[in-house]
Amino acid sequence: MAKCIVIADDLTGANATGVLLKKMDYNTYTMMNAERLELSLSDSCDCLMYPTDSRGIDKELAYNRVYNAAKLLFNSEVKVWAKRIDSTMRGNIGAETDAILNVLGDDVIAISAPCFPESGRTVVGGYLMVNGLPLHKTSVALDPKCPVKTSNVADIFRQQSKFKVGSIKLDDMMSGKHVLAEHMKKLVNEGNRILVFDCVTQGDLDLIADALITSGLKFAAVDPGVFTATIARKLITPVKKDTKHKILALIGSVNPVTKAQVEELWLNQRTAYNVFIKSSLMLENDGIRDAEIKRVSDELLEKSSKYEILTAVGDGIYSENRIDFSKYTDRYDNTDKMTERINDAFAQIGYNVLSQNPAFKGIYSSGGDITQALCKKFNTTGLRLLDEVLPLAAYAEMMSGDFPDIKIITKGGMVGDDDAANRCITYLKEKLYM
After folding, report:
1. Beta strands 108-112 and 218-223: pairing type?
2. pLDDT tens for residues 291-306?
3. DSSP letter string over 161-202?
4. CA 305, CA 175: separation in Å to the nearest integer?
5. 134: phi > 0 → left, psi -120 to 50 → alpha, else beta; which?
6. Hey, which residues does 408 pair with through a beta bridge?
7. CA distance 209 to 62
8. What is the CATH number of domain 246-431?
9. Is the Cβ–Cβ distance between 116 and 225 less than 8 Å?
10. Which positions fall inside the Four-carbon acid sugar kinase N-terminal domain (predicted)?
């Protein structure tokens, strides 16, 4: 039985959202012919796309099409209802939102987070920006069928919907999911049936989704598809998944590229917690080295009860902490021996964490030497390559060893733009339904 129903105002939008869901391995169908609709088909899919071809028609007719579609597809087992709208807010957005709310019931609200970061659509201060320009200053304002004259998302809903609209800005999203969840419930208690959110990054969408789940509010997503995909992967999980998955990032590179990427990662991944590894201690005697490995491992494990992404980063990313290898030449034959000892320590931290918390199903490894050390420590026979996340960043699965089937993204330390690490973690979250 389909757990996600997406009613889209056109076929292109239905397919675009369906592809986002399919990328996360959901079995997704788009229904093409309403007159020959076989509801039994929904029994064999996870997500069902239903286009109504209602963007450019009269608003009353658009309302009826969406209302009838929602009535037809209604099932109490559906976990995610979504009204797919155009990424530039064209069409009968208000009427169609009203229709789906009227079918789902008075206790259901609409959640609109209409950003599409990869397509340059963001919402800041309540205004929809398209590649940095306010919506009303783009060609959308001149659209012959569905011109949009304002960039204010909440105002677009207010002009078209009969329901009260509340707006949540970036300032309201700075204190985490629990505070945001309470703010959402407060707005709903004040009579708002439609909540419109600022959103700039995928991290913002994750926060909104986490807060929505925490709030316990019943909802329908109203967006161009990215938020729908985000909430779906958090609520609709494969049968085989019985725990909330977590990701461990091990980052040992010390170059400026890695520093910028790590800081960008921390900025965007709000459910991440970092522990710095004092890399120089890994070159001391075994007692000092083992104590540092235990400290980092214990802190990561302790914080894993609260956070879903844990990062262990060598403190050498900051220049003042860089190791002066000349101090250790009396203990080690060469620099290779020193770096090998450091990399082995990173791998041991990874081993300790994964062996004591089976919820860790994904690893992000930055630096080829770290990846090699991990595979050696984990007794992995090889990596089954699955995809390219970005140039020189591979998505793979560990083969046999102590942690078979663990998913891993490996990336060179000097590879990618500032957002590379964040993109890799986001990709891994999608694959792990986080």
Report:
1. parallel
2. 999 999 999 999 999 9
3. -SS-EEEE-GGGGSS-HHHHHHHHHHHHHTT-SEEEE-B-SH
4. 19
5. beta
6. 363, 396
7. 28
8. 3.40.980.20
9. yes
10. 5-229
Q: How far apart are CA 290 and CA 285, in angstroms?
A: 9
- Say what the pLDDT of residue 39 is: 64
Number of helices (H), then strands (E), belonging to the chain: the values are 12, 18
| Number of other residues whose CB lies within 10 A of the CB of residue 75 | 12
Rounded CA-CA distance 109/215 in Å is: 12
Q: How far apart are CA 409 and CA 387, in angstroms?
A: 9
Angle between helices 202-215 and 256-268 (to 10 degrees): 30
Burial of 251 (0-12, 13-18, 19+ CB in 10 A): buried
Mean pLDDT on 268-279? 91
Confidence (pLDDT) at 349: 98
Nearest Cα to 277, choosing from 352, 342, 373, 371? 342
Class of domain 4-235: alpha beta
Q: Write out pLDDT tens, residues 65-85.
A: 999 999 999 999 999 999 999
What percentage of the chain carries pLDDT values higher than 70?
Answer: 96
- Give residue 363's pLDDT band: very low, low, confident or very high (50, 70, 90): very high
- What's the pLDDT band for 239 if we cut at 50, 70, 90? very low
